[in-house]
Design brief:
Shape: elongated
Keywords: Chromophore, Flavoprotein, FMN
Largest sheet: 7 strands, antiparallel
Number of strands: 24
InterPro entries: GAF, GAF-like_dom_sf, HATPase_C_sf, HATPase_dom, His_kinase_dom, PAC, PAS, PAS-assoc_C
Number of helices: 18
Helix content: 40-55%
GO molecular function: transferase activity, transferring phosphorus-containing groups
Radius of gyration: 51 Å
Protein name: PAS domain-containing protein
Structural class: alpha+beta
Length: about 650
């Protein structure tokens, strides 16, 4: 075999080896699957081994084509992979131009080659590179990177076979990059599809997507549940089959069909409707076209939401609003977040009460109703309550738009948001002019009656005492009867005064300790009636809600049980029973029982009739004290063996 034949054989073996290496790289799993980083390691190691280069590296251009970045560099001497080096086009214009205009660059002496010598100072000399063999990566005619074979420590001339192999390696890198980007796109599409499915399933609305040709694309579980469709109920390929099933469930199928036909004729239109379902539910139906940025129509998206509860809440809210608007008392709402707390709402009754039209009410503080004779004390009380963010009730002399006066019972209460911050104040206004005038007249009549009655009865009593001292027999007995009746009548005037004060002042209930409220009247009755057996049973350690005169009511009932008992030593027990939210006070006596008229007085069913045994006034006093204490009073039992009266009071510590 001649030397030429041996050279040809070597070239043939080299070519065979190059082809096999390229084939191995093309079919490499990492290259095929697009595992780009792993593929680059295989490619650069194989290229360095086959060509016998010191280093092989892969570089990629940035999007602007002005910068090359090394993504993998394999050094055969150290078996290491590195990367990250960058070359900027402005620093090496000749080299970058050569890459753009040549398939490959074969530079035996890279430091003098006009295409690569710009790299000498910054790259070739620091790394000891003498020779370069670069093969460009191209995609649709554009250079996107380069595979660089470097010889360190000596120069070498690259053979045609090596140059061809370098180009094949560049093609393999391009294939790996393309497969990598395709895999990334597939992963991105899969991610988007999975995300879309997850979003659809997470939505509170039912979702249905129908293609432009009527084909069914996607839906979520919520859509199936809303329409009670089984999994195979969405199997038909046509979306209109599903819409037909919906049509059969709505209360107005004809209107639904007309709406679908309209959207079919107007595919670019968005719709928003409400559907009444045959099982009583109400659905909100939203539909919008699915289009590309260029305006191509792909289909239609349907969203279904169950708004039954919302509709019920709206109806309830509308009812409440109508109730407030039509309430027989004035109702206002002010905005505490604005300066001077202006009114933002007033109902119709407030307009009628004050004579001001709504446009002159809103935006103003409610003090515009005050005038020359409005007392400062209740105004200050109301302002202090607002400053302290608490409710309060006062009675004010206010003025209507026509300047006429009226007495206004005003209640103001704070309204807080979910964070506990007061945002508004609700006000209730009631015209109490008639009651105020009636109370004033009642007080005047009471003062006149009490003064005249007390004076006249004192004269009658004094005369009767003189008569009793100077006479005897029947005349003396009659005189003593006059004195007793006069004393009883004077006692009634005291109770009458208490009732008048109670009804005119109407004190506000407040927390009261139950223990002294029970023990004091028991002790007082024992002192006044030593022959009676007065006991306190149960546990009085609680706090109840009541008015300050509540103790008077307990005392009155204890005295009533003692005085009207028909035994030599009457027995009366005050029994206390604590419950979670209330306290029961039972006054149990062993007397002859209460007449029906007196029972009706206590329970509030009685009318003003001639009083029985002088007891009626006291029982009325008890009734009103308990009522104003927000309690109730009842006769549990009464008869010849005794009476049990129960007072039920709300607990303040419950």
């Amino acid at each position: 075999m001649t030397a030429e034949d041996e050279s040809d054989e070597r070239r043939r073996r080299h070519c065979q080896r190059y082809h096999e290496a390229v084939l191995d790289l093309v079919t490499d799993e990492d290259v095929v699957e697009g595992a780009f980083d792993a593929a680059l390691r295989s490619i650069t190691e194989t290229a360095a081994e086959i060509v016998g280069a010191t280093r092989v590296s892969v570089w990629l251009f940035d999007d602007g084509g002005d910068r090359l970045r090394c993504v993998d560099r394999y050094d055969d001497r150290t078996d290491d992979h590195t990367g990250g080096t960058e070359l900027v086009s402005a620093d090496y214009p000749a080299y970058f131009e050569a890459l753009r205009t040549h398939r490959s660059i074969s530079a035996g002496d890279a430091r003098t080659d006009p295409r690569t010598r710009e790299l000498t100072a910054d790259y070739l000399e620091p790394t000891g590179v003498e020779s370069l063999l670069d093969a460009t990566l191209r995609s649709e005619g554009d250079v996107i990177g380069v595979v660089c074979h470097e010889q360190v420590g000596r120069t070498r001339e690259w053979t045609e076979t090596e140059i061809q192999f370098a180009g094949d390696v560049a093609d393999v890198v391009h294939r790996a990059l393309r497969n990598h980007r395709s895999a990334e796109q597939r992963r991105e599409l899969e991610f988007r599809r999975s995300l879309l499915e997850a979003q659809q399933e997470a939505m509170p609305d039912g979702v249905l997507v129908v293609g432009d040709g009527g084909e069914l694309h996607s839906w979520n579980t919520r859509f199936r549940d809303l329409w009670n469709l089984s999994a195979d109920g969405l199997e038909p390929p046509r979306g209109d089959a599903v819409l037909d099933r919906i049509r059969d469930r709505v209360t107005d199928p004809a209107a639904f069909v007309r709406r679908i036909e309209h959207l079919t004729e107007n595919p670019a239109e968005t719709s928003h409707d409400e559907l009444a379902v045959d099982d009583g539910r109400v659905f909100e139906l939203y539909s919008t076209p699915v289009r590309s940025d260029a305006g191509t129509q792909y289909g239609r998206l349907w969203l279904v939401r169950d708004i039954t509860e919302r509709r019920e809440r709206q109806d309830e809210l509308e009812l409440k609003n109508r109730t407030i608007d039509e309430a027989p008392i004035g109702i206002t709402l002010s905005d505490a977040t604005q300066p001077d707390n202006p009114l933002v709402y007033a109902n119709d009754q407030f307009e009628r009460l004050t004579g001001y039209p709504r446009e002159e009410i809103l935006g103003r503080n409610c003090r515009f109703l005050q005038g020359e004779r409005t007392a400062t004390e209740p105004v200050d009380d109301l302002r202090a309550a607002i400053d302290a963010e608490r409710s309060n009730t006062v009675e004010l002399r206010n003025y209507r738009k026509d300047e006429s006066e009226f007495w206004n019972r005003v209640t103001v209460a704070p309204v807080a948001d979910e964070n506990g911050d007061v945002t508004n104040y609700v006000g209730f206004q009631q015209d109490v002019t008639e009651r105020k005038e009636a109370t004033r007249q009642l007080r005047v009549l009471h003062r006149v009656l009490r003064h005249n009655l007390a004076n006249q009865m004192s004269i009658i009593r004094g005369t009767a005492e003189q008569l009793a001292e100077r006479s005897g027999g029947d005349t003396e007995a009659a005189a003593e009867t006059i004195v007793e009746e006069a004393d009883q009548l004077l006692g009634l005037t005291d109770k009458h005064r208490s009732i008048v004060r109670l009804l005119s002042e109407r004190p506000t209930p407040e927390p009261i300790a139950l223990e002294p409220l029970c023990r004091r009247p028991c002790r007082s009755v024992r002192t006044d009636y030593p022959h009676a057996d007065v006991t306190l049973a149960g546990d009085p350690n609680a706090t109840v809600v009541g008015i300050p005169t509540l103790e008077t009511a307990v005392h009155e009932l204890l005295v009533n049980g003692v005085v009207h008992g028909d035994r030599t030593s009457p027995s009366v027990e005050l029994r206390v029973e604590r419950r979670p939210e209330t306290v029961h006070l039972r006054i149990v006596d062993d007397g002859p029982g209460l007449p029906e008229e007196e029972r009706q007085i206590l329970t509030g069913d009685g009318t003003v009739e001639p009083l029985y045994h002088g007891l009626g006034m006291g029982l009325w006093l008890v009734h009103w004290i308990v009522s104003l204490s927000r309690g109730t009073i009842d006769i549990e039992e009464t008869g010849p063996d005794g009476t049990t009266i129960r007072i039920e009071l709300p607990r303040a510590d419950g």
